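hi!! sorry for the late reply, been swamped w classes. u asked for the two structures so here they r. pasted raw, havent cleaned anything up. first the sequence of the first protein and right below it the tokens
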Amino acid sequence: KHEILAFGDYLNDYELLQAAGTAYAMENAHPDIKAIAHHIAPSNTEAGVVTVLRDLLGM
């Protein structure tokens, strides 16, 4: 579990984010997804996943 990093924005991602050791909700995510996430990433339209991954990898 601690090795899993997941991103989600809607209710279909709920179980994935719960199973992840580190869960990111997108800024434009459903409120229930934001409530369970460990972190908030920039929105989908702002390349949020890429932004977070670059930060984590030091790029």
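now the second protein. again sequence first, tokens right under
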Amino acid sequence: MKPNIADMLLFVAVMEQGSFTAAAAHLGCTKSAVSQGISRMEEMLQTRLLHRTTRRLTLTDTGARFHDHCRAIARLYEQAVTEAAAGDGKARGQLVLTAPTALGSGLLAPVLDRYLQENPDVRLDLRISDERLDLIAEQVDLAIRVGEPTEQSARIVKLGDMHDQYCASETYVNRKGGSPGSYRELAQWDHVASRWQGNNPAVLAPDGSRFPAQVRIRCDHLQDVLDFVRRGFGVGRLPDFAVRDDLATGRLRPLLVEGPVVRQGIYALHHYERHPPAKLRRMIALLREELDFPAGA
């Protein structure tokens, strides 16, 4: 026999609440029922899931792996119940979304504003981090990645491409006597770099040439780079979606525009098999629209 879903959900509740007593109170059952459910699963699996002491519960190595999968099942169970009860395909519930800091304000901010207005029954749990979170272990519904994803088991959807280009304020360009004549010259200007450009940022030419950049300011986040560039501190290598409005209004000037310096794909990852929930489908659609990527591509 295999453990039933009820016992697996009970197992999740025990770890979330921290004790059999607290889990029983949370679930509205007896402490003995909780204990019996855990023991029943351990017997069926022929392994110990928990170390029990009078003060605390800790997971065994096997228990920790099993718990990760049980949490994913619990999330899908709640999603299934919510959507079946609604019956109208409306987006609702909580959407856990993770994305790197480079995409936080430039790409996500306008998308999230529209998404929340169009889907008032969805609550967002937003995790902006350069750490690649484990979707199952962290119960993430949707992960946004820059560059080809490495996760083998996830469902991958391309959202579009990110094109980097060099930009500076009109004030800074005038201070330097006009636009640079070459990428080598551009490398000698003051640069505002972000940490995702690495320890030794270089000016990249479309033909693949690299020239060490004169970095004057280094920032953790893309938004900080953009703010310093706007204020005339130097040149920034910035993605097109982050500077679209600044270029249109003349707040920033593009430099050496023969072509995009770097082109990287932006992808969405999730673990829903055949029928992703409406809350997730609508987020993906809005992200593709923001990146001007055709829905059928």
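hope this helps!! also noticed smth abt the second:
The first strand starts at residue 50 and ends at 52.
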